[in-house]
Design a protein that fits this description.
The complex is a heterodimer of chains A (207) and B (222). By secondary structure, chain A is α/β, with parallel strands linked by helices. Chain A has five helices and eight strands. Chain A is globular. Chain B has 222 residues and is α/β, with parallel strands linked by helices. In chain B, strand 5 and strand 6 form a beta hairpin. The longest helix of chain B has 23 residues. Chain B starts with a strand and ends with a helix. The chains are: A alpha/beta (207), B alpha/beta (222). At the A-B interface, helix 1, strand 4, helix 2, strand 5 and strand 6 of A face strand 1, helix 1, strand 2, helix 2 and helix 7 of B. Strand 4 of chain A pairs antiparallel with strand 2 of chain B, so a sheet runs across the interface.
């Protein structure tokens, strides 16, 4: 397990929002998450993949690296979101970045989306992907595809699962990064949850 | 690589949500840097389920849209700053605030230039309040409008180091102690820069550069 980043105490800007303690991506209504140890990491001591699934179709938008050498999951997401601005699920793995992996990397990405579709019943056009880890290596699909099945079978709406997911996507991170806030808009409580990872190779230029 | 996923139960139409996410991404994750290397995988994806019960937002200029975007920006800033805070080998978060630029884009460009300077990042690790390196990094920022060095004001931790382009006779020991105390508790080193009297304001976040950065990356298979 990783320690928690001091977001609430040090990093979150002041505003009319209230922090929801120990919560993450399932704090808002309508989301479930799971994390699993597929064995993708070089040192296989931690979970290394996560799946977030929405109960219903969501408005969905993304920004992605403008690096011309971009990973297969990045290309996959860009194509999906060019066709429609809605989505239901996102699958994330650590260990291998599936970048600079050529046509086989693209095929792996599509296989991952189909595996999510198979276990959740979603259309694969409603599935997005993210990968992080070593560049130039294909994802260990023999381990990952069965893990996607497990991820789909263990989805839940809980803070514990949110924390586990935030930890599972980390690579060289010393702390896990997750947060949830609530804001009152015309008497309605609106919630936001999030998780991020990153420690090195950090100079985002996304569009 | 940075990855980020944000969920919300706000009810926002897909086209308005897309515009919000683009603006927020520009002000948050695109304003951090640890080592100047842009990854192949950087991604930010945001979902809005609409399950909060609020009326759907279809006008991006409505008060409700502003409130949602403000909260979306806040959570993205928190997550983005956490990455810079956790930069490999870092002992502090390094925040630069720029005001007085011609527009926000120029201000953000200057702020990012400053937090990206390897020389300045190393100076912070060494507790050296090296205002010359701050001025230098501001000066080579690729802004649309030229920077007038005679209007440059620089402060670190509230201590004025440069005023109207002239170095100030400041308490160097006090400034060094500020850096030492901040890095010892993995706090936030704050640099404030004024470049004129324009309305442009921008922020950027990085971290110091320590020996451990080299150690971590020399041992990480690429």
């Amino acid at each position: 397990e990783l320690a928690h980043a001091p977001i609430e105490k040090q990093l979150l800007p002041n505003g009319p929002w209230k922090v929801i303690p120990n919560a993450g991506v399932t704090a808002p209504e309508g989301f479930q998450v799971s994390a699993y140890k597929a064995g993708l990491r070089k040192s296989g001591t931690r979970a290394d993949c996560a799946l977030i699934v929405a109960d219903e179709s969501c408005s969905c938008a993304g920004v992605f690296t403008l690096n011309a050498v971009c990973a297969a999951p990045v290309q996959f997401c860009k194509k999906q979101l060019e066709v429609k601005s809605t989505s239901r699920a996102i699958l994330i793995n650590a260990g291998q970045a599936n970048a600079a992996t050529g046509v086989l990397g693209d095929e792996d990405a599509m296989t991952c989306a189909k595996a999510v579709s198979d276990v959740t019943g979603l259309d694969s056009s409603d599935v997005l992907l993210m990968s992080t880890g070593v560049i130039g290596r294909r994802i260990k699909m023999d381990k990952f595809v069965p893990a996607i099945q497990a991820l789909g079978e263990h989805l839940e709406r809980s803070d514990a699962a949110s924390m586990a997911a935030a930890t599972s996507i980390c690579t060289t991170d010393v702390v896990r990064k997750t947060l949830a806030i609530e804001v009152d808009i015309n008497g309605t409580k609106v919630k936001f949850g999030g998780m991020s990872k990153g420690s090195g190779m950090i100079h985002p230029n996304m569009g | 690589t940075m990855l980020a996923v944000v969920t919300s139960d706000a009810n926002v139409s897909p086209d308005v949500w897309t515009k919000m996410v683009k603006r927020v991404g520009t002000k948050s994750f695109n304003q951090i840097s640890v080592d100047g290397d842009t990854s192949t995988n950087d991604s930010l994806v945001c979902f809005a389920s609409g399950r909060s019960g609020m009326k759907q937002i279809t006008d991006e200029n409505s008060p409700e849209a502003k409130q949602v975007e403000e909260a979306l920006n806040a959570i993205n800033l928190g997550l983005a700053k956490a990455i810079a805070w956790d930069g490999e080998g870092a002992t502090c978060l390094f925040e630069t605030n720029v005001k007085g630029a011609k527009d926000d884009e120029d201000a953000r460009t200057i702020a990012r230039s400053v937090i990206c300077s390897s020389l300045l990042k190393a100076a912070i690790f060494g507790h050296d309040p090296n205002w010359g390196r701050i001025a230098c990094a501001a000066g080579y920022a690729k802004t649309k409008s030229a920077l007038d060095q005679n209007r440059l004001n620089i402060a670190m931790g509230g201590i004025t180091l440069m005023k109207d382009g002239q170095p100030v006779d400041f308490d160097e020991k006090k400034a060094s102690t500020y850096l030492k105390e901040t890095t010892s508790k993995h706090g936030t080193v704050v640099v404030d820069i004024e470049v004129g009297n324009g309305s442009g304001y921008g922020q950027a976040w990085g971290c110091d550069l320590s020996y451990d950065y080299v150690k971590i990356n020399a041992e990480y298979t690429t």
